[in-house]
Amino acid sequence: MHRASAVMVLAAVLAGATAGCADVEGLKDDGDLGTAHAPHTLWKDIRPSPAPSGQDSGAAAVVPGLAKVTGGDMRGVDALSVLRADITSAAAQDGGTGRLVDPRAVQRLALCTDAPDGGPDCPVRPAALHDVTGNGKAELITALDIDGRLSELRVYTVRDDGRIARVLSRRGVLEGVEVAAEHLAVREPTSNPRYISVSDYVWDPKAGAMNLTQLTLDECHVISDTPLSPDRSRCAR
After folding, report:
1. b or e along 181-213 (b: 16 or more beta carbons within 10 Å of the residue's beta carbon)?
2. Are 108 and 146 within 8 A, CB to CB?
3. Cα(179)–Cα(129) distance, rounded to whole angstroms?
4. In what order do the strands lie in the sheet with 151-158?
């Protein structure tokens, strides 16, 4: 056998042996897996200023200008009057900055009349009464629609002293609002049309407010008879 032929045969044998070993040991080449990198923090030296006193949109607050309620229940309370008092007070407090309420909210409320339901042009959703604090008494849940997409969601309760307090304030695109026991879930679209975000609020007796406890993504099943567009889509629940 020529020397060159012998070298080629030996190389082939070694290659086969290596391959056989790889098969036995289960080793294989997955290619370049890339390099793992630690997260890079952007603008780590910049922090937002804390909210001024009374300018926290998520904090509970007594609604001024309303009569005390006996019985500790929101049943029988004029929902539109409560919302008007709250929105007017919040708008005056934040000075049109939009921190506490959308600057257009007061103008939108002006479309409501003195009719029991606010009239045909009133952008306030029908009042819903549910016990979300677990005390066996009903809270008031309502929302003011701002522009056909954005809404101001509000939840009100009666404190032990009879004063009406706002315990949840949330601005968003309300794809859905669901109530179960002491939970209130707000469903909103995301930038990915396949998913919808679900914010779960639970009553916190120490804070006296509905606090966000969980934020999840749910798969969106688009309703087939609704035209699908960036500004108008609905998800089946």
Report:
1. ebebbbbebeeeeeebbbbbbbbbeeebbbbee
2. yes
3. 10
4. 61-62, 164-172, 151-158, 139-145, 128-130
Q: Which residues of 145-173 are buried (b: 16+ CB within 10 A; e: fewer)?
A: bbeeeebbbbbbbbeeeeebbbbbbbbbe
Contacts of 11 (CB under 8 A, 6+ apart): none
Which pTM does this prediction carry? 0.77
Residue in the block written with tokens 């916190």? 204
Two tokens at 47?
């922090």
Torsion sign across C-alpha atoms 36, 38, 39, 41: negative
Beta bridge partners of 218: 196
Closest CA to 218 of 181, 185, 184: 185
Which amino acid would we find at residue 57? S
What residue type is 170 in one-letter code? R
Which residues 6+ apart lie within 8 Å of 133 measured at CB?
A: 139, 157, 167, 182, 203, 205
Alpha-carbon radius of gyration of the chain: 30
Contacts 24+ apart (CB under 8 A), 181-187: 181/134, 182/131, 182/132, 182/133, 182/134, 183/132, 184/132, 184/141, 184/155, 184/210, 186/153, 187/218, 187/235, 187/237
Residue-wise pLDDT tens digits, 79-136: 999 999 999 999 999 888 898 999 999 999 999 998 888 999 999 999 999 999 999 9
